[in-house]
Every structure is written in C-alpha cells, then in structure tokens.
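Submission checklist for the structure archive. All mandatory fields must be present; incomplete records are returned to the submitter.

[x] Identifier: TetR family transcriptional regulator
[x] Organism: Nocardiopsis coralli
[x] Residue count: 212
[x] Sequence attached
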Amino acid sequence: MPRTADHDERRDRIARALLRAVARKGLARTTMADVADEAGASVGMVQRYFRSKKELLRFGVEYLYGRGAERLDEVELRPPFDDLILRLTETLLPLDEERRTELTVWLEFLPATITDPDLAGLHRETTHHLVDGFAQAFTRAREAGTFPAAYDPTEEAVALVALVDGLTMHHLVGSDHFGADRIRAALSTHIDRLLGPAGGTGPTDTRPGGEQ
C-alpha cells in the first residue's frame, strides 16, 4: 500500500508540475525537461511514469478535470437552489491562483481536443457530466417550484456551462470588463433570473439568450 501511495503521489506531483509549466510557457513550448525541472525530478523519473509527452498530457488533462470534480463534490448540497447553483458554478471560475493556473492550462489544452480523439473524448465526457449534473439540479428546483416550468433543464444547463466558460475565457485574457467581481456578479445575475424571486414567472425578454 505505501508503495502504491508513493507512486500515485509522484504522478500527481508530476501532473501539478505539468500544469505550472504549461501555464508559464504554453503547451507547445513545454517539454518533458521543463516538467522535470518544475517537479524537482529527473527526466528519467518523469519518463518512468509517462513514456511520452502525449501520455503525460492526457494524464494532465485528467488531473485537471479531476480537481474540478473534487471542488464540486466539496460543495454542501443544501437549498435554496439559487445559492446552491451559484456556489457550484463559482468553483469553476478562476477566482484564486490555483484555479487561475488550472484554467489557463485548460485554455491551452482546448485546441488539442480538435485533433486528438482521446482528449476530445475526455472533454466530451467531462462536459456531459457537468451539463447532466446542472440539469438534474434544475429538475429538482422545478419539482420544488423554484425553476420555471416553461424552461428546459438541459437547455438551461448547457447555457449555464457556456456562460461559465465564456466568463472564464474573458477574465483570463484580461478584458477590462471581466474582472473577478464582475464575472461573479454576472453569474449571480443569470442564476437569479432563473431561480430568484422572479424566476418562477416564466420566460421574459430580459433573460439572457433571448427567445428559446
């Protein structure tokens, strides 16, 4: 058991080093030697766990998505639903240094999903679970009478994930209109329009996204 734990800890250490290296240098310019330096290890040790850069990158992406899932799991599942969904979605925003690093790397990895079938499949699977989770939350909110019957839970879950991704991207590239306080406020406003006091009245012209 200690040997397995040590093995897993080293792989995680290398994954964290990969994220830091990619955040600093970019995906294309990051080498196995960069990752080894960042991890305080030899290239040989890195290659003992990952035979190629592609294998290392895949594990890095899995680690990245795994950290996001862990943060979601740490959120206490208690009503009201608007507060719950806000707390869940805020874990996906780059609101601290660790998440900023991880999401900077996520933006670097995204283009690779276009040409790499393995990474594309991992991205689709993760996105599916995220959308499905929010859709289930909206369904439960509708059963509780706080989510409008006229709205489709899956469509609103897709829109919410897209909003979070867009806010993340604009914040990371440094747009003046997308500071930390503003992206948090934009997210809160969107959720309030779905689940707040006025949310149960059905669609209105002021809701983001326009007509369904």
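[x] Structure attached
Curator remark: Residues 96 and 180 are 9 Å apart (CA to CA). The chain has ten helices and no strands.
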